[in-house]
Amino acid sequence: MPPDLSADGHRIDALLRVSIGLTAALAAAFLLALAWVVHRARQRARTAAPEAAAPPAVAVALGVAVLVFAVIDLTLAARSHRAALGPPPPDALRVEVLAQQWAWRFRYAGPDEVFGTADDVTTLNDLRLPVGRAVALEVRSLDVAHGLFLPLLRSRADAYPGRTARTWLRPAREGRTELACSVLCGAAHYQMRAEVTVLSNEQYTHWMNGLSDDQRRRAAAGEAPPPGAWAWGP
């Protein structure tokens, strides 16, 4: 498994380990059963009087297979329920994400924590998050289907035009990772990447205040459109 920078990624990792382990055990059991059937068939072929088929044995094998599948389904359902995070906390940091061919745009509400005001912060292919705080991502697409994929933060969301996908995560350690598009979205799909940096709370606040002041100054001087006019598309 890749390194885990999130506080809750161990739940997803545990689910993957259980599903892979059960699948491997089931595959081994079926391969052993197939080998046994082949061995018995060869033994019957060598005898002068072939044995009659044993319907009870077939029924038992089918019953065991159904039981194994049922156990796997119940186990994965229980693990999935434990891995589910539920809704984000009320104090989660909200970040709006706009996917487009072929870039990621991010909008923060700024120090006032209200979207559509002069201190909103927008970035291109640069997502910065504070360590230890829940982050709620609201993902939309401007043109075609895209997939937000953060493997080191164990988070993923599909983005389609006309709808908003929501997911949330909680970074547990400072560091850098990469956001990639997990859906083939066009000729330059391979270029659709963004850098993700998890900062300390002090570094994040300093970055947010500095960028907010700069974008507010640019908007007042007419050098950039106001943050409230940031286009989201249809």
Describe this structure in words.
With about 230 residues, the chain is of the alpha+beta class. It is built from 3 helices and 10 strands. The protein has helices at about 10-45, 55-85, 200-220; strands spanning about 95-100, 105-110, 120-125, 125-130, 135-140, 145-150, 155-160, 165-170, 175-180, 195-200. The strands form 2 sheets. A 5-stranded mixed beta sheet has the order 3-2-1-5-8. Strand 6 (about 145-150) and strand 7 form a beta hairpin. Helix 1 packs antiparallel against helix 2 (about 55-85). The longest helix is centred in the N-terminal third of the chain and has 38 residues, at about 10-45. The model is unreliable at about 225-230 (pLDDT under 50).
Structural class: alpha+beta
Amount of helix:
25-40%
Largest sheet, strands/sense/barrel = 5 strands, mixed
What Rg is obtained from the alpha carbons, in whole angstroms? 26 Å
Q: What does the average pLDDT come to? A: 78
Number of helices: 3
Instruction: Give the N-to-C terminal Cα separation.
Output: 38 Å
Q: Can you write the helix and strand succession as a string?
A: HHEEEEEEEEEEH
Taking strands numbered 1, 2, ... along the chain, how are they ordered across the largest sheet? 3-2-1-5-8
Number of strands: 10
Determine the strand fraction and express it as a percent band: 25-35%
- Runs in which pLDDT lies below 50 for 5 or more consecutive residues are 226-230
Quick one: overall form?
elongated
Task: Give the structure's gist in a few sentences.
The protein has 234 residues and is α+β, with helices and mostly antiparallel strands.
